[in-house]
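Hey, I'm writing a tutorial for new members on how sequence and structure tokens pair up, and I'd like a real worked example in the thread rather than a made-up one. If someone can provide the structure for the chain below, I'll link this post from the tutorial.
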Amino acid sequence: MAAVNASQLREGMEVYSGEGQSLGPIERMDRDSITVRGQQYEFTSIARTGANRVYLTRQVGASTGTGRGRAGDAGSEVVEAQGEIHVPEVEERLHVEKRQSEIGEVQVRKTVTQEQQTVPVDLMREEVRVEERDTEDRPATDADLRSAFDEGTIRVPLRGEEAVVTKEAVVTGEVVVDKERTTEHQDISGTVRRVRVEVEEHYQRERDGFRQHYAQGRGSSGKPPFEEAEHTYRSGFEAAHDERHAGKRFEDVEPELRRQYERSSSARAGSDPWERLIEEVREGYRRGGH
């Protein structure tokens, strides 16, 4: 097995123990060791790298600043027991409930305005008309003599109609405010987590086949060795086990795998172009889909 050097590692790569348990990302890199969650691992304890992951050997010694401990101290769980080992696959599911809440309001505002109105009315009134008439001479009667030579003013009252204005409020219309319930469809999305259990044994069964495929192709000259190119087969194999790619052909997922590779390899000088590695990724995807 070829020794791993610093050029194959970088901070942020996920580290797995020899038993396949995730220990966490690389937090710091030193000249001959890496630090994961406060635990230090020497380069000699790294079995291989690939697909942005680091795999440790089965027997790993971890050291802190003052002493050495077990890889399990870094957050992994090592089970040493006979019989079956049950590893639960846990996932979160999205549940949507409904509750009553105030989502808005409608304001109906009343204002009072004034306007001038004119109503035509016919009014009756009395008018005085004075007419002097000539009569034939006749003897004055006692009634005529009673006030014949009295001075004074005779008042004749005049009557008529006048307009009396009153106001009456009447209802000329109404505004009806009604509420009705409607139903609208909404798609509620959220992020859920899922525990994915990877069984290293499945990959190990196919490893010899990957080695033969590599020897017949890019590795026919023996350079680089299979261990340095193994990550391409593993990336395709793991993509085939991704539930997002279930039932899909390699041609359907190849653009996404290309983007992942180009993002992960952009920081490594001298990385092989995707076109040179695609057949190895394809072979890993094909065998992983069995």
